[in-house]
Design goal:
The termini are far apart. Helices cover about 5% and strands about 50% of the residues. Strands 2, 4, 5, 6, 9, 10 and 11 form a seven-stranded mixed sheet that branches. A four-stranded antiparallel sheet has the order 1-3-8-7, with no helix packed on it. The protein has one helix at about 105; strands spanning about 1-5, 10, 15-25, 30-40, 45-50, 55-60, 65-70, 75-80, 90-100, 115, 120.
Amino acid sequence: VQLQASGGGLVQPGGSLRLSCAASGFSLDHYVIGWFRQAPGKEREGVSCINNNGITYYKDSVKERFTISADNAKNSVYLQMNSLQPEDTAVYYCATARYRYSVEWHCTVGMDYWGKGTQVTVSS
């Protein structure tokens, strides 16, 4: 299982970024996949996840601003991030697991495979 995240960068407050994660070595058909982030000095947290049925989970602070989507044909997942704020600054990681319980559970404690992160910096 390999996960390759991309799309991070420096953006001004209020701006947008789109993260991409290309998965290989497995099919998304029976998996849950999503995005986590870790800011300096803070614990890693689940941001948004999606399962093969399109069920999604969003952390409260990103609802209405972030949108997760998956393209099973391309074995990829995306995170469209709008209205970015300085508190969104973090290293963002793509992670996945074979779907076992709820999307929310997987998006908090239940991921098995992790990719390398991509830095997102929101600053003026």
